Amino acid sequence: MTTTAGDAALAGKLRTAIARLTSGQAQATDGKLTIVNVCAEAGVSRASFYRSPAAAEIKTALANASAAPEPGTAEDLRGQITGLKRAAKTSRSEHAAEIRRLNGQLKTYANQIQLLALHAEQLRDENQQLRQRLDNTAGTITPLNPRRGRQASAQAQARTES
Fold it and tell me: Where are the domains of the chain?
């Protein structure tokens, strides 16, 4: 297979596109190392890419680039894991503190309800006793000061008549 000037120009565009993608300076794509992105960065169709003699070389380079870990990635991930573990621990301790606070509040409310129920029962008993006393003394109510009661009722009657 012979290489023409067009094939060499296409291979140059593709290599330039790969260099932009690997250096993080993508202009037309999201920067991921894929064949679609290489073609978009180079400004060529995928059909032209696959017909190019450089296609096999570029596919191998993409496979090697995606298989090799980026430097510093493991340390970054360990740092993220440590941060996430710390955040999870903080979240769990805050959650436990909130549960303890709510349980204390629940006990306080339960005690208050119990006291109010006892007080209500005492008031019902007292009310029942007073009603029984009233029923037992229904016909024997006497005024404390009989004269005063007669005078007041006579004066009230005189006022209504006039």
Answer: 5-67, 73-120
Mean pLDDT to the nearest integer, 33-49: 86
- DSSP per position, 53-80: TTHHHHHHHHHHHHHSPPTTHHHHHHHH
State the Cα–Cα distance between residues 9 and 41, nearest whole angstrom.
14
What's at 57, amino acid-wise? E
Question: Model confidence over 95-114: pLDDT tens digits?
Answer: 999 999 999 999 999 999 99
Distances 67 to 17, 61, 76, 120, 136 between C-alpha atoms, Å: 19, 10, 18, 77, 100
CA distance 102 to 122: 30
Q: How far is CA 72 from CA 36, 75, 79, 147, in A?
A: 27, 5, 11, 108
Output the pLDDT for position 100.
96
